[in-house]
Structures are given as structure tokens and as C-alpha cells.
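At this stage, I put together a protein sequence along with its fold in C-alpha cell form, as given directly below:
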Amino acid sequence: AVGKLSGIPADWVDQLSREFPDTIFLVEGDGSAGRSVKGHLSYEPVIPACTSLLIPIVGLDILGKAMNAENVHRPEVFGEITGVTPGDPIDTAAIIAILLHAKGYLQQAPKASTIIPFLNKMETFPLWRAGFALAQQLLTAKHPQINSILAGSVHHDCFVSFS
């Protein structure tokens, strides 16, 4: 894409981390072609092994929208992981599935990393209500690397943390 930089190999970040242990490296690791959710291929997302904090992002504006290529990056993979069939609305169960399923967002997460999912685009009252409920469901799932959830809106610079 025009104006977009190519990423560096993940092992370069690991090497830099070893050489500069007091430096914090912020890596934007995986795009979703402008969509709020994504079905990852088996080798995605590419996450450096040295990652200590991983923040997977889901746009909650996807809730209630049809599962199709217009709304979901790689809908065939998303459907395989979540069980949502093409054309059906995406619900909170699908978001939980794409985050926590063995082939979902966390499939490449280093076992020692802390994971704080970020529920973004909570820009209406119904999405705030859905975000609160989803955060509680994610915490109830007791994933060993998830002890808190960040929710809010980057666009409105408004955030809340759940733990």
C-alpha cells in the first residue's frame, strides 16, 4: 500500500531487545485491512518472542454486523474459528471465540507475556453496555495470561480498565 512501511522480521526485535534490555519497543504487529475483526492465518499474528505485553484490539462496532468480507478481514477464517456463518450477525460470543480460541488472536502469543485485550470503538451507549458485559465475560473465562481488559474509544480518548 502507498505510504505504508514494511515491517521488520520479528527476530530483529528479539535481537534488539537482547542488545538494549532497558529499551521499550512498541510494535504494531498485525493489520486487519481497516476492519474491526480478523481471522488470522496459522502463522499470524507475527509476534516477537520477547513480547512482554500484548494488546489484541477488537472494534466493538462489529457487533450486530453481518459476517462478510466487507466487515471482517478473512471472513472464511473468522467463521471457521467462531462458528459464525456468512451473513449472520456477529455477537459477543464470536468476539470471545476469536480472542480465546486456540487458532484466534492469541495463537502466537508468547506464554510469558501479559495480555490485555482492548475493546475499541465503544462510541455509543449500547456499545458501552456491550463492552462492559464482554469485558466481564472475558475475565470470567480465566485465561491464564489475561488479568485485565481495556475498553473505550481511541477516537474519543476515553478508556476504562476492568480487572
